[in-house]
């Protein structure tokens, strides 16, 4: 397999700003930087919508973020509002406690509720907080997400104290969901070397806040 170039890596990045203190000026700067760097999308909080973005730059928004401890109906309503405001993709957070309890049917129902509110061609990514889960739970929630119609499974919010993405988790997630569902590695992906390692492990999308630094253009920022 040929090592991905910086341009290849950039096209897999959701250029992300989810800090609570983010301002509209910060998000405008994020969009401009994403366009300059050639990332796939920007990923922002739903209150930042609607966004003016150049052609070719997708808009991703989070739902049930960052705890996942929202009612499924609340996550679905948040996702539906985001799509109505122009979001192309929604990154929802599961109830991690339900996963730890082995209640994968509840996780599936949660994802299905949001999927119903975000019909194709809109993309639904499911954040599982892999660092907080056992391997068994990672497999269980990935299967539940696929059964509910998710387009991607995603490692982390980047806000959980247990940590972010790992090559092991990405590899396990990719082998569980198979080639028809994407895997997004997010949380602590700060260098080009780390990004390439995640891609080699099976990641098909990357969540990055310090994209300029990762791609070789400036100092690192953030932890997402």
TrEMBL record:
<dbReference type="InterPro" id="IPR013785">
    <property type="entry name" value="Aldolase_TIM"/>
</dbReference>
<dbReference type="Pfam" id="PF01791">
    <property type="entry name" value="DeoC"/>
</dbReference>
<dbReference type="InterPro" id="IPR011343">
    <property type="entry name" value="DeoC"/>
</dbReference>
<dbReference type="InterPro" id="IPR002915">
    <property type="entry name" value="DeoC/FbaB/LacD_aldolase"/>
</dbReference>
<keyword id="KW-0456">Lyase</keyword>
<feature type="active site" description="Proton donor/acceptor">
    <location>
        <position position="184"/>
    </location>
</feature>
<feature type="active site" description="Schiff-base intermediate with acetaldehyde">
    <location>
        <position position="154"/>
    </location>
</feature>
<keyword id="KW-0704">Schiff base</keyword>
<keyword id="KW-0963">Cytoplasm</keyword>
<comment type="similarity">
    <text>Belongs to the DeoC/FbaB aldolase family. DeoC type 1 subfamily.</text>
</comment>
<feature type="active site" description="Proton donor/acceptor">
    <location>
        <position position="91"/>
    </location>
</feature>
<dbReference type="GO" id="GO:0004139">
    <property type="term" value="F:deoxyribose-phosphate aldolase activity"/>
</dbReference>
<dbReference type="InterPro" id="IPR028581">
    <property type="entry name" value="DeoC_typeI"/>
</dbReference>
<comment type="function">
    <text>Catalyzes a reversible aldol reaction between acetaldehyde and D-glyceraldehyde 3-phosphate to generate 2-deoxy-D-ribose 5-phosphate.</text>
</comment>
<protein>
    <recommendedName>
        <fullName>Deoxyribose-phosphate aldolase</fullName>
        <ecNumber>4.1.2.4</ecNumber>
    </recommendedName>
</protein>
<comment type="pathway">
    <text>Carbohydrate degradation; 2-deoxy-D-ribose 1-phosphate degradation; D-glyceraldehyde 3-phosphate and acetaldehyde from 2-deoxy-alpha-D-ribose 1-phosphate: step 2/2.</text>
</comment>
